[in-house]
Structure formats: C-alpha cells, structure tokens
Amino acid sequence: MAGELFKHLRKKGYDLPEDAGIIGAGNLRLTEHMDPPLTTIEYHEREMGRIGMRMLLEKINGQTKKTQSFLDPEPVIRATCMPAGPKRSRPHHGMCCLVE
Predict the structure, then answer these.
(1) How many Å apart are CA 50 and CA 9, to the nearest integer?
(2) Does residue 75 have a cis bond before it (omega within 30 degrees)?
(3) Is 97 helix (H, G, I), strand (E, B) or coil?
(4) How far, in Å, are 21, 44, 60, 66, 69 from residue 49 at the CA level?
(5) Which of 25, 21, 19 is nearest to 1 (CA)?
(6) CB within 8 A of 58, min separation 6: which ones?
(7) pLDDT (tens digit, 9 = 90+) per residue, 48-91?
(8) What is the dihedral sign for C-alpha 5, 11, 12, 18?
(9) C-alpha 14, offset from chain centre
(10) Are 57 and 22 in contact (CB under 8 A)?
(11) Is-contact 41 76, C-beta < 8 A?
C-alpha cells in the first residue's frame, strides 16, 4: 500500500521526502530498492506467529483467561522520512503518512 502511495505522489509531482514523507509497514525487501528507499517498520512475524499459536493452544485447552502480548516493532529509517535539520523545525513541510 505504501508503494502505491509512493508512486501516486511521485506521479503528482511531489518530491519525496521534501514534500511528503512515507513510512511503510512490514519492511518488504523491495522497499530498500525504491528511489528514494522507503522508511518502514519491521514487525517480527515469527514472534507474532509464536504468540498467536500459544494463545490459540491455550484457548483450545480451555483456558479462558484473557491475555495480552506486546511486540516492539523496530523502525527501519531510510530516505522517505528525513530527520529535522538546521533548515527546518519539522521533518516535513507537508505530510507524513504511515501506511500498512
């Protein structure tokens, strides 16, 4: 989805990341090869799967206690979200979108 937004904004003449910042989700391999490379959030799919399986097995085994699990996603900073520099007080002049 972030890739489609990326293409749409480029087609409309936006300069990424000067005019708009985009953050994708999932850290797909192709995101590092985009121009500019897409900033993304790394989710730990194996850990999510392990937790999901544990919760499913607990439910199958009759455990009714509600549980919550939290994962710490990691940002993978690339070129589509620029840090604030001496020329600006905010990272972007326009918009920044997190797209899943």
Answers:
(1) 37
(2) no
(3) strand
(4) 30, 9, 16, 18, 12
(5) 25
(6) 65, 67
(7) 999 999 999 999 999 888 888 888 888 898 888 865 555 544 44
(8) positive
(9) 20
(10) no
(11) yes
Q: How many residues would you count in the chain?
A: 100
**Rounded CA separation 87/69 (Å):** 41
Structural tokens at position 63: 């455990």
* DSSP conformational letter for 35: S
Q: In which domain, by residue range, is 93 found?
A: 2-98
Read off the amino acid at residue 49.
G
> What's the domain count of the chain?
1
Q: What is the pLDDT of residue 81?
A: 81
